[in-house]
Amino acid sequence: MIRVNLLPQKKRAERVATAEPSASQRWILVVLAFAVLLAGGFIWFHQTKVKELQKQTNSNSQLEGDITNIRQLVQQHEQVKKDLALLKARDEAIQRLEKARSGPTAALLELSRLLTPGKGPTVDPDRYAATLKANPLQAFNPGWDSRRVWVSSFKEDGRVVELTGLARDSTDVSELALRLKASSYFYDVKILSGGKGTKTANDVAMVGWGMQVKVRY
User: Fold this and answer.
1) Please, are residues 210 and 163 in contact by the beta-carbon 8 Å criterion?
2) CA–CA dist 50, 162 (Å, integer)
3) What's residue 16's pLDDT?
4) Low-confidence ranges of the chain (pLDDT < 70)
5) Which residue in 37, 85, 88, 144 is a FRET match for 55, CA 20 to 30 A apart?
6) Angle, nearest 10°, between helix axes 23-101 and 104-114?
C-alpha cells in the first residue's frame, strides 16, 4: 500500500518552526530567571541586614541603659558620701555613749540606784545565787531604807574607789556593803575604819564610815 502526502511541504515546515521557541525568547527566559534569582538574593541579604541592625540596636539600647545607670550613680555619689559620714558620726556617738555607760558614769549611776528607796543593785542572778549558796548571810535586805546612809565622797584611782559618808548606825553600813558586793559593777568590798561621827539638827547621832571597792568597766 502506498501513502501519498497531499499537504504542501512548505507549510508543514512553517508549522514546525512556529511550534519551537526562537533564540530571543530563550534569552528573555534566561534574563527573567536571573532577575528572580537576583531578587531572591536581594531579599535574603536585606533580611540578614535587618536582623543585624536589630541586634545592634538592642545592644545600643542596653549600653545606653547602663550609661544612664552609671550617670545616676555618679550623681548620687556625693549624697552617698554624706550619708556614710552621717552614719559614721552616729556610730561614733553610740560608741561614746556605750563607753560612758560602762565607765565611771555607770558606776555612779549604780551607786545612785543602791541609795534610792525601792531600788537595789544590778544583780547577775547566777552569780548572786552561787554567792548565797556559799554564804546565805551575804543576802541584802530588799526592804532596807537606803535614806539611812549618806555618801560624802567618791574617789577613784585605777578602778579602785574610796567611799566615805555617814549612817544612822553600823547595820546600815553593813547593808550598803552587802548591796555593793551583790552588784555586778562592784567587787572586793572592804569596810575601812569608821570616820568621825556627828549629829543632825534633831540631835540624832550619825556614825562615820569608809569603804574601798573595785569597779568593773
Assistant:
1) yes
2) 92
3) 47
4) 1-22, 93-102, 194-197, 199-203
5) 37
6) 50
Which of 126, 175, 129, 131 shows the shortest CA–CA distance to 149?
175
Which amino acid belongs to residue 211?
Answer: M
Backbone angles phi, psi at 184, to 5 degrees: -75, -10
Give the three-state DSSP class for 167: strand
**Are the CB atoms for 210 and 193 separated by under 8 Å?**
yes
Q: Cα separation of 37 and 156, whole Å?
A: 105
- CB atoms under 10 Å from CB of 92, counted, come to 10
Q: Which domains does the chain have, with CATH numbers?
A: 104-215 (3.30.980)
DSSP letter, residue 157: E
pTM for the whole thing?
Answer: 0.53
Cell 570616820 belongs to 195
Q: How far apart are CA 94 and CA 103, in angstroms?
A: 14
